[in-house]
Amino acid sequence: MGTYLQDHPPRQTQFRARRARVRGVIVVHSAESAPDLAGGDGGAEAVAEFIRGRSDYGSYHDLCDSDSAVDLVPYELAAFGDGTGSNEWALHLSAATQAHRWPDLPEQWVDGCLRQMAKRAARMARWIEATAGITVPARRITRAQSEAGVPGFISHGDRDPGRRSDPGPAFPWDRFLAYYAAEMEEDDMATPEVLAQLKTIEGYAEAAATAAQRTFAEQRAIRKGTTRYRNEERAKVRQALASLRKRATQDQADEILADLAVLESAVAADEAEPGDA
Ligand SMILES: [Zn+2]
C-alpha cells in the first residue's frame, strides 16, 4: 500500500522524482478548502479526493485536518506544492482550511489541526534527518534562507508572495512550532542511554521474577523430599517389625508386640506432625 495518490492515480500527474537533493525546508500551506466543522472531520480526505480529480497541478506530501492526516505523496518524490522551484528539494505540509479562517475557527479545530500538523512535521523532519543528515529547527525562515538551504519552516505565501498568501497571516506559527518542538523533544528522550537503562531495569525485574520462581520450586522440592524420607523410614520400621514377629516365641512376641504398639504410636505421632501440607 502506498500513499493516497499512489493508490488512487490522479487525473493529472501530481508528483515525480526529485531533481535536486532534499534540503531541510518544510513549506506550510492551507488547502483553501472549506474546513469541515460538523461531526467527524472529513476535510483532509475531501481535499485528497479533490487533488486526485483536479486537472491542474497542485499537491502536497501530507495533508491535515483537525482529527487526521492523509499521506498524499511519498517524501522521496517531489509534490507539486509551489510554483517557485522549491518542489525539487522541499516537503509540503498543508492544512485543510482556508488562509483567512484561522481567527474564526473553533479553538478545538485549530488545536487539533496544529497537533496533526506538528506530528507530520516531526515525521518529515525525522525523514530529512535520516535521508540528508539535516536537523530541522523549530523556526520560520525567509525565502532567501530557504533558497540558501537554511533549514526551517516557510509559508507558501513567503515563497510566492505575488500569487499566494497561505497558510495566512493569522496562522498560529508560535503554537505550531511549539507543538513541533515538543514532538521532536519526545523523540529525543528515547536516546540509546535511556533505552539501555530501560533494558537494565527490565533485566532486574526479570531476574527478580526468576529468583522468586526458583525459591518457590525449591520449597516445593524440600517439602516433597521430607515426605519421601518419612515414608521410607516408616517402611523400614514396618519391615523390621514384621521380621521380628516371624522369629519370636509367643512370650517374646507379646513383649515385642507391646513395644510395637509404642513404636507405632510414635510413628503415628510423627505422621501427625504438621509441615507437610
Ligand atoms: Zn499553498
Structural class: alpha/beta
Strands ordered across the widest β-sheet: 4-3-6-2-7
CATH superfamily of the largest domain: Peptidoglycan recognition protein-like
**Secondary-structure element order, N to C:** HEEHEEEEHHEHHHH
- Low-confidence parts: none
Report the CATH topology name of the largest domain.
Lysozyme-like
Largest sheet, if any? 5 strands, mixed
In total, how many domains does the architecture comprise?
2
Per CATH, the class of the largest domain reads Alpha Beta
Helix count from the secondary structure assignment: 8
Bound molecules: zinc ion
Computed Rg: 39 Å
Average pLDDT score:
88
The backbone outline, from C-alpha atoms, is rod-shaped
| N- and C-termini, Cα separation | 61 Å
The second-level CATH architecture of the largest domain is 3-Layer(aba) Sandwich
The count of β-strands is 7
Walk me through this protein's architecture:
It is a single chain. The protein is α/β, with parallel strands linked by helices. The protein has two domains: 4-189, Peptidoglycan recognition protein-like (Lysozyme-like); 194-271. Helices cover 52% and strands 10% of the residues. The strands form two sheets. Strands 4-3-6-2-7 form a five-stranded mixed β-sheet, sandwiched between helices. It has a two-stranded antiparallel sheet with strand order 1-5. α3 (107-132) packs across α6 (173-189) and α7 (192-247) packs antiparallel against α8. The protein starts with a helix and ends in a 6-residue tail after the last helix. The model has no long low-confidence stretch (mean pLDDT 88). It binds zinc ion. Zinc ion binds at residues 29, 156, 164, 166.
